[in-house]
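Hypothesis: this fold can be encoded by more than one sequence.
Test: take the structure tokens below, design a sequence, compare later.
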């Protein structure tokens, strides 16, 4: 009888983990509490490390085919002046791939397509995870009980599994920012593949897609729970005098398409990503701010590292110890870097501090900026047979 796993959570990390485990011969069930998979979440950028992970999972080619490379763009001021310029060709030469932009819903579908339909159990919320013996774990999902050799907790930033394993951990906290984002309803005349614009206490960015539409996001430094009666009108008021194509992106968006979420993170690092036969992955383990665009990439790294460890280690406990030793230092370092990037970017509001930052960015050589990016993108995955 082969090894069995239950993955809690049908997002990017959970689906990737299921694909990886199946590639090494495991029988996997993905438990997702949502009865209908809506695939919300606008767009996503995938860096070279995430793309390499997808290659090991066997879906890299399909994802590249549905993505648009980010070769042009950079960081700007609200009046349109350039702080940094993106050189996607140089980045591709350095790490073997440009950053790719894709709709999150498209990525979800491609990952689900790599799994048999019967492997996904929707409308099932995990009520409890119990270590029933030295080699078995049991999940209670409503009236249904699932037993497995391993439980992979990929149930997101609000992970119930994480809370049950580490009840003393403070859990996610508000980063100081809130994000509004959407996909445009129609193509927009864009001259770049990717842009960020940094103002005082605010950021606006876009990702261009293959079909001419775009994802945009607006990050505002606001208290947790702040909401607007008409989000699109609020954004038009705040960004009406920012450079093109920001007003055009908002005009090409339906009011009901705007998503609004507070940005939360696991600011207090977990002491371990493993407890018995349960392992944490993705946002459940290391939820970070989106300022480096590494959240999904780190989850994909988790998935491949976990599968490779289980394929080669003599025992599951040994594999999980290896996974924890490999993933916890790297993912927590990336989370710290993302937090620092947020403080230097959209959260900076003091006019003098903003002016000093802008000057420093303009004076930073392109080679130095590329070197900083490579710290996170230049990751070599373990091979999955």
């Amino acid at each position: 009888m082969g090894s069995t796993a239950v993955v809690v959570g049908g997002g990017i990390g959970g689906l990737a983990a299921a694909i990886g485990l199946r590639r090494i011969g495991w029988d996997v069930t993905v438990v997702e509490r949502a009865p209908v998979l809506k695939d919300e979440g606008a767009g996503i950028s995938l860096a070279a490390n995430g793309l390499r992970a997808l290659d090991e999972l066997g879906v890299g080619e399909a994802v590249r085919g549905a993505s648009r490379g980010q070769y042009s763009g950079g960081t700007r001021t609200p009046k349109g002046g350039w702080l940094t310029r993106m050189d996607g060709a140089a980045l591709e030469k350095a790490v073997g791939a440009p950053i790719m932009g894709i709709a999150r819903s498209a990525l979800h579908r491609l990952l689900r397509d790599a799994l048999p339909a019967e492997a996904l159990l929707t409308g099932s919320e995990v009520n409890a995870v119990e270590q029933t013996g030295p080699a078995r774990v049991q999940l209670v999902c409503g009236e249904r009980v699932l037993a497995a050799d391993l439980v992979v907790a990929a149930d997101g930033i609000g992970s119930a599994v994480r809370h049950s394993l580490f009840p003393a951990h403070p859990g996610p906290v508000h980063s100081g920012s809130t994000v509004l984002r959407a996909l445009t309803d129609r193509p927009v005349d864009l001259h770049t593949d990717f842009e960020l614009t940094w103002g005082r206490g605010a950021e606006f960015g876009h990702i261009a897609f293959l079909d001419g539409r775009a994802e945009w996001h607006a990050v505002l430094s606001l208290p947790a729970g702040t909401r607007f009666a008409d989000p699109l009108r609020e954004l038009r008021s705040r960004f009406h005098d920012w450079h093109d194509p920001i007003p055009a992106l908002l005009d090409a968006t339906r009011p009901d398409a705007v998503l609004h979420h507070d940005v939360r993170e696991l600011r207090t690092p977990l002491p371990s990503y493993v407890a018995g036969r349960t392992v944490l992955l993705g946002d459940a383990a290391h939820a970070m701010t989106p300022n480096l665009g590494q959240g999904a990439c780190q989850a994909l790294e988790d998935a491949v590292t976990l599968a490779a460890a289980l394929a080669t280690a003599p025992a599951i406990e040994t594999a999980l110890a290896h996974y924890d030793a490999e993933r916890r230092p790297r993912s927590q370092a990336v989370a710290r870097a993302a937090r620092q990037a947020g403080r230097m970017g959209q959260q900076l509001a003091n006019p003098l501090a903003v002016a000093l930052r802008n000057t420093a960015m303009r004076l930073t050589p392109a080679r130095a900026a590329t070197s900083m990016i490579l710290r996170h993108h230049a990751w070599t995955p373990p091979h999955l047979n």
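Residues 178 and 263 are 5 Å apart (CA to CA). The two ends are 20 Å apart (CA to CA).
Hypothesis status: open.
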